[in-house]
Design brief:
By secondary structure, this protein is of the alpha/beta class. It contains seven helices and twelve strands. The strands form three sheets. The protein has a seven-stranded mixed beta barrel with strand order 4-10-9-7-5-11-12.
Length: about 240
């Protein structure tokens, strides 16, 4: 590491992990096995995981909604790293619709090319392990999807189930793409969707340095991700990544 890089990193404070832990969960299939383990005399522990790519904190590329569009390995990291605008809607009540008027009121700082983080702090009301997290969440109206597309943002992250019909999965109903408001509006417009981030109550700023890092899964329409934000990043680092 060069001395100049070290000095830049010394000015980075407030790293906030926005990622849900990956573990057994009733909402998604998750299975972990040991191929080898040092407790059985092997030199190393080697494990297999079985899980959907669209689970916990994850990234949806356009191929999630449309055949032939970008898969996760084709999404430039520059679309997933950079200056993010926090739209704080934590005042919204349970089961409240988030409309374009809400985004106008709280998202005046959003500009073309931004990463947008929609903050409701739903995880403070209910744990992601509770069904109420999924069934009582605020949700995005069709008008809010149009607002984000018209703004020309490059990615949008949510800390709540953003489509109302996602709760239908608990009834065994698979909604159509037309009914999945944000999935259709964003992915069809080529905007990356980042789902189920957490810990936004720890973010005080309205702008942060944001990182959403997927696995480089060739030809796959999504990936689990490690997502984190940096508050109070030095202007030098911020300007180099923006």
């Amino acid at each position: 590491m060069t001395e100049s890089t070290r000095k830049r990193l010394e000015n980075v404070e407030g790293i906030i992990d926005l990622t849900l832990p990956v573990r057994k969960h009733w909402r998604w299939g998750f299975h972990r096995t040991y191929e080898r383990d040092y407790t059985f005399g092997h030199p190393l522990r080697e494990e297999y995981l079985y899980m959907p790519v669209h689970c916990f904190t994850h990234i949806d590329p356009p191929a999630h909604a449309t055949e032939g569009e970008k898969t996760i390995d084709q999404v430039p990291l520059s679309d997933l790293i950079g200056y993010a605008r926090i739209v704080d809607l934590s005042h919204k009540e349970q089961n409240a619709e988030i409309t374009d008027a809400d985004l106008d009121e709280k998202g005046g700082h959003v500009a073309k090319g931004d990463i947008v983080v929609v903050k409701t702090c739903q995880g403070l009301r209910y744990s992601v392990d509770q069904q109420e997290f999924w069934t009582t969440s605020p949700y995005m109206a069709e008008s809010s999807g149009k607002w984000l597309v018209e703004k020309g943002v490059r990615a949008v992250a949510f800390d709540f189930p953003q489509d109302y019909v996602l709760r239908d999965f608990f009834k065994g109903i698979i909604p159509s793409l037309d009914d999945m408001t944000m999935h259709k509006a964003l992915l069809k417009a080529g905007i990356i969707q980042i789902e189920y981030i957490t810990n936004l109550h720890l973010v005080d700023a309205n702008s942060v340095l944001f990182f959403a890092i997927p696995l480089r899964l060739e030809g796959v329409a999504g990936s689990p991700a490690r997502v984190f934000a940096v508050e109070n990043a030095s202007s030098l680092i911020l300007n180099r990544i923006r």
